[in-house]
Amino acid sequence: xxxxxxxxxxxxxxxxxxxxxxxxxGLLPVSVSVLPEGGNYRWTYxxxxxxxxxxxxxxxxTIYDFHGYVAGGESAPADWVFEGAMSGPTPALLNPxxxxxxxxxxxxxxxxxxxxxxxGLGNFWAISTISESRVDSFTAITNRTSDGVIDSNxxxxxxxxxxxxxxxxxxxxxxTTLLLAGLGLPLVGLARxxxxxx
Length: 198
Fold this sequence. Notes:
Layout: H1 2-24, E1 28-37, E2 40-49, E3 53-54, E4 60-63, E5 80-85, E6 104-109, E7 119-128, E8 133-144, E9 150-160, H2 175-197
Antiparallel strand pairs: 1-2, 2-7, 3-8, 4-6, 4-8, 5-6, 8-9
């Protein structure tokens, strides 16, 4: 019995260690700010490279479903190239929420290798016509510091979301109005019949 107890504790500790290390892998959006800019809104993402990752040319991150995207209103630090697409790009084996009708934002790194993390990579921004936000998917590809193997991660970040159009209460009749109309129509028909016969 004592052996099973220690095995269970060991497995639990291993599971916690694995989940903790995977949570820190890859690029992470540590903060998002939204500021008015020329009648639109600038969405700024501060991106960090964790300690167990290195950044190599070709690594990238994608922010999904960025509503109200204004073309040409994006920026990034040196050595990063912007791509906009309606779907993806997405690292293999990850399944983010991705609406194919809404623009995704991707920044791809093309600079020299940054050998170890725990550094801020700078601010990346894009312009949207929308200031309202919701949580959506963020994916990234980097390489592990220890052996260079490609590492991908998925997390959440804030994105602009199109406001839903409230329904006009005057367009939908209340049930009592429908009931009265339903009762009144036969009475109107009866009154017409009486007039014709008279």
